[in-house]
Amino acid sequence: MPRPKTLSDEKVLEIALGLIHERGPEALTFESLARACGLSAATLVQRFKSKAALKQAALLAAWDRLDTRTEELGAAAAKTPEGAVEMLVALSHGYGGIEAYAEGLLVLREDLRDPVLRARGAAWRKRLSAALDACFADTVEAPDGIGLLMASQWQGSLLWWGFDPRGRVEDFVESSLRQFVAALAPR
């Protein structure tokens, strides 16, 4: 198959992110990406300058996709606690099985190491929390900051599922979040 003459940066970064998720962040090299996308390694070096810049660009593209997905789900979510649960369950789709989840934690490590990526994570926390807060806006018993509390419960449930990954992650998350919402209800 002949090499493509051009491929958008967006497509190259999508392929790079696929390599990161399949084989871990250290597996992303200009050579491995060249094999995967069909462009020459020299062309990729010209575009991205360094392996660190390539990895950062791929992970920033992933944050962009997560921002878009969060915005879409937040706009479509019912402005109820149930809508918040459904939103977080939807964000849990795509984690896959335990092996894929474990590899994803290596990606998180990269986000935590890089100040630019860490800042994107902090910004997403604010957007996600605000979207979840909006789902509780008409709920009298919801405490201030409920969005961040619920997001924290969600992230914790993902981690606890990872230690005992029986069943689908989405089912575990949904059960955990329903228990969380039920705990908010006045007795």
Automatic annotation (TrEMBL):
Q: Which top-level group of life is the source organism from? A: Bacteria
Residues annotated as DNA-binding are 29-48
Q: Does the keyword Transcription regulation apply?
A: yes
The HTH tetR-type domain sits at 6-66
> Pfam families, from UniProt?
TetR_N
Task: Tell me yes or no: is Transcription among this UniProt entry's keywords.
Answer: yes
Spell out the InterPro entries in the cross-references.
Homeodomain-like_sf (IPR009057), HTH-type_TetR-like_transc_reg (IPR050109), HTH_TetR (IPR001647)
Keyword list, A-Z: DNA-binding, Transcription, Transcription regulation
Q: Which named protein is this?
A: TetR/AcrR family transcriptional regulator
Biological source species? Mesorhizobium retamae
